[in-house]
Amino acid sequence: MTSKQQKIIRVLIAKPGLDGHDRGAKVVARGLRDAGFEVIYTGLHQTPEMVVNAAVQEDVDVVGLSILSGAHVPLVQAIKKLFDKDGVDKPIFVGGIIPSDDAKLLKKSGVAAVFGPGSSLTEIVQTIRDLLK
Q1: What's the pTM?
Q2: Are 9 and 132 in contact (CB under 8 A)?
Q3: Cβ contact 14:51 at 8 Å
Q4: Measured on CA atoms in the order 58, 32, 14, 114, is the torsion positive or negative?
Q5: How far apart are CA 92 and CA 107, in angstroms?
Q6: Under 8 Å CB-to-CB from 133, ≥6 apart: which residues?
Q7: How far is the C-alpha of 37 from the C-alpha of 48, rounded, in Å?
Q8: H or E element at residue 125
Q9: What is the mean pLDDT of residues 15-23?
Q10: Is residue 69 classed as helix, strand or coil in its secondary structure?
């Protein structure tokens, strides 16, 4: 593959749990598309099983979870457990209002990156590119 034929990065943006606010997820999805990524957005109220199924079916390179409900730790743990059970090895990044102690816990459990309010699209795009090098 020459440099002109670079593989397009496929990203799943998912909204697991009961969180009903998806403006941030849509802004990130649009920013990733503008950066040349292919983005699959799951919509609201996804179960961990739905997120994992979508990641597998869409053969994405990375999974982004937008969680504002406060249930980020159990939701991410459930998704990671299903990934492990199904042999899925995809980096996960999480966005939302996540306390720093929880962000540390998520990273310790294998989450590649955590983005809070004010994170720039440039930072998110570059982090994803770095994850997949």
Answers
A1: 0.94
A2: yes
A3: yes
A4: positive
A5: 10
A6: none
A7: 23
A8: helix 121-131
A9: 92
A10: coil
